[in-house]
Amino acid sequence: MLVVAIALGALLAVSVAALGLYVQHVGDQERQAQEAAQKARRTGPLALPPIPAAEAGTPECAKVVAALPRDLRLGESPVPRRALAEPVPPATVVWGDAEHDPVTVRCGIDAPAELTPTSKLVDISGVSWLEISEGGRSSWLAVDRPVYVALTVPAGSGSGPVQDLSQILRDTLPKQPVFP
Question: Which domain of life is it from (predicted)?
Fold first, then answer.
């Protein structure tokens, strides 16, 4: 009886250890699958939904797009431009790579419904911005230039991209009243 009790105890210990290894293996596989899915989402041509952008073909937007850098700094990292999937929205540039979610600039978009005479605007380097946050992303809309320009960044991107775009807009497009 003592031998049976010892054998059953050993069998139980081996079973628990095997179950622990199996659970760890399954967890590792799930983490690897999640990492692969995130990397796939962050690489390759990015499909963007169409949005109304009646002024995307204007000379002002051509100037803005031409002035945008090849690499965008996010923190200490230079992030390259990312290809867009067909159909490519006009006057749109995206940066991103396997380590960074996309950062998007769209020029010539229509006036957002959130822009009202009582909207809270933020001045950054001489450019008036309206921030709209939704779903872990923030869109910053430059509202005091001849065309509306939107910068969409993932949460945690810091203020660098909006500061950089403010300088480009300040140097590229003339300031005008938000509500002419």
Answer: Bacteria
Q: Rounded to two decimals, what is the model's pTM?
A: 0.77
Per-residue pLDDT reduced to its tens digit, 11-33: 787 877 777 777 787 777 777 66
| CA angle centred on 66, ends 180 and 55, rounded to 5° | 35
Task: Count other Cβ atoms within 10 Å, centred on residue 116.
Answer: 9
- Quickly list H helices, 43-174: 59-67, 160-172
* pLDDT (average), residues 54-59: 97
Tokens of 87: 């159909």
The answer to whether 115 and 143 have CB atoms below 8 angstroms apart is yes
Q: What's 59-172's CATH class?
A: alpha beta
pLDDT for position 36: 56
Helix, strand and coil percent figures for the chain, each rounded to 5: 35, 30, 35
The domain spans of the chain are 1-43, 59-172
